[in-house]
Every structure is written in structure tokens, then in C-alpha cells.
Design brief:
26% of the residues lie in helices and 25% in strands. The protein is α/β, with parallel strands linked by helices. It has a domain at 6-116 and 184-231: Class I glutamine amidotransferase (GATase) domain (Rossmann fold, 3-Layer(aba) Sandwich), CATH 3.40.50. Strand 9 and strand 10 form a beta hairpin.
Length: 257
């Protein structure tokens, strides 16, 4: 199911930006809007935004039904996301909606639910440079990236990363402090495609980085739905005549005496 225009929803908590002056200076309209602004320059995408403190976190059934790809950034308020909304998002992913999980979204309820693992890791907010190695140069998500790219300053995430083995490993990061991390990975869950992408701590200008923006845009194109199959459990009639099961018929008769 390929649409001429991919309906893309960028979701963020939009709380750090209101509480931390450093984050406000970097992202005056919110991280979600910085990501959305870059994506609006990309052909073939229609971009909208939503955030935590909207009714139903901006993720109503109507909104999700119209969404092809959902981009998720969360950090300080994972527990404030309602379980009802998480279940709603998960259903849409299983039906076919794409999901891109960014940075600290590794601990979001929706990501942990879809992964079925702890999603834990090591971290350090310091002066690390991050070098992201492209280990899947054939993949659509890495189109135009080259062998690697660097982010001058970022929060460190280190292994072990408590995720299931990815279907495809896309990036591996190295940090100045010596750690490495599986910083880009994909999975299929039901009919939906999932991409986790590590960079994006709120106190660094990561979402203004052109190659970070390129990866996210590539991921949207990759994650767009190929099908949309609602989760139903129908009683299915036989396509061919079935022989009579005499024992079953007898049990049925006895059961109604």
C-alpha cells in the first residue's frame, strides 16, 4: 500500500522545551517542530505534529487511522503516556503503520511493548563526539549518508542495549569515551515496520544536523505501510466441501440432548 503522499505524524513530549532554557534556546518551537520543519522540505511527505499534553496525547483513533508513519520522541514523561493510547498505537503498528523511535524513546512504553524486552542501556551526558558508522550501505535508510557521519557533541549510549536482535542493523556508533552502540536498527512487528535511531538528546542541536535529518526522512519513506490489515479473528467458511465428521456430529448431537 504505497501512497503518493506519506501522512507523517511527529510526536514529542514538548516538556523539556518549556522547563529547560538551554533546550528552549535550541528548539524554541519544540523538538517535534524542528524535526517536522526539516521533513516538510522532503518531497512526498505530509507532516503534522502532536504532543503529550494534548487531549489523548494528540493520538486519537481518528488521527492514528490517518497516519502512515509515526515518529516518537519521549524522555522525562514516559509514565504519563496512557496505557490506552499505547495500546491504540500498537494496534496501528501491527496493522501496518510505520513507527520511528528516536533517542530516549528507547524507554517509551510503546517501544518496550513492541520489543518485549527491557530496552535498557548505559548512558553519559558529557562532551562525547559520536561517529555513526553505516553498516548497511545497501539500505534505503542510509541513502546519501556515506561510510559514516559525525555529531560533534551528543549524549553517550553504550552497550549492552536490551533489545531483541534487529532484523537489520543500520548504524553502529562510537563515542569519544570508547563505548559503541547499535544506534540504528529495524524490526517488523505484525504488518508494521519499526526503526530505532539513537541521536537526539534535548540539550544538543542534533535535530538541526543535516545528516540526522536525512536519515529520518529516508526512514519515513522506508517505513511507509505496504498493507493495512485490521486485527480481526473471523470464523472462516471452507472453500471446498468438507467430509462429514461422524464422531463430531455424534458429539454435537449428544451435547444437545
Amino acid at each position: 500500500m504505497s501512497n503518493s503522499t506519506i501522512q507523517t505524524l511527529v510526536w514529542g513530549e514538548y516538556r523539556h522545551e518549556k522547563k529547560n532554557p538551554k533546550v528552549t534556546a535550541l528548539y524554541p518551537d519544540g523538538m517535534h517542530e524542528a524535526i517536522a520543519a526539516a521533513l516538510r522540505k522532503e518531497p512526498g511527505l505530509s507532516i503534522s505534529t502532536a504532543w503529550l499534553d494534548q487531549p489523548e496525547h494528540g493520538l486519537t483513533e481518528k488521527v492514528l487511522a490517518a497516519t502512515d508513519v509515526l515518529i516518537w520522541w519521549g524522555h522525562m514523561s514516559h509514565d504519563d503516556v496512557s496505557d490506552e493510547v499505547v495500546a491504540r498505537v500498537k494496534t496501528r503498528v501491527l496493522e501496518g503503520m510505520g513507527l520511528i523511535v528516536l533517542h530516549s524513546g528507547h524507554y517509551a512504553k510503546i517501544f518496550k511493548s513492541l520489543m518485549g524486552t527491557t530496552c535498557s542501556l548505559k548512558w553519559r551526558e558529557s562532551s562525547d563526539k559520536e561517529r555513526l558508522w553505516n553498516v548497511a550501505p545497501h539500505h534505503p535508510i542510509t541513502a546519501g549518508i556515506g561510510d559514516y557521519f559525525e555529531i560533534p557533541a551528543e549524549e553517550m549510549y553504550g552497550e549492552p542495549f536490551g533489545i531483541p536482535t534487529p532484523d537489520e542493523l543500520i548504524f553502529i556508533s562510537w563515542f569519544t569515551g570508547g563505548e559503541v552502540f547499535r544506534s540504528g536498527a529495524t524490526w517488523q512487528r505484525g504488518n508494521g515496520r519499526i526503526f530505532y535511531f539513537r541521536p537526539g538528546h534535548e540539550t544538543y542541536p542534533t535535530y538541526h544536523h543535516p545528516q540526522v535529518q536525512r536519515v529520518i526522512a529516508n526512514a519515513v519513506h522506508w517505513a511507509q505501510p505496504t498493507v493495512c490489515i485490521p486485527d480481526v479473528c473471523p470464523n472462516s467458511p471452507a472453500l471446498e466441501p468438507l467430509p462429514v465428521d461422524s464422531e463430531a456430529a455424534q458429539r454435537s448431537t449428544e451435547g444437545h440432548r
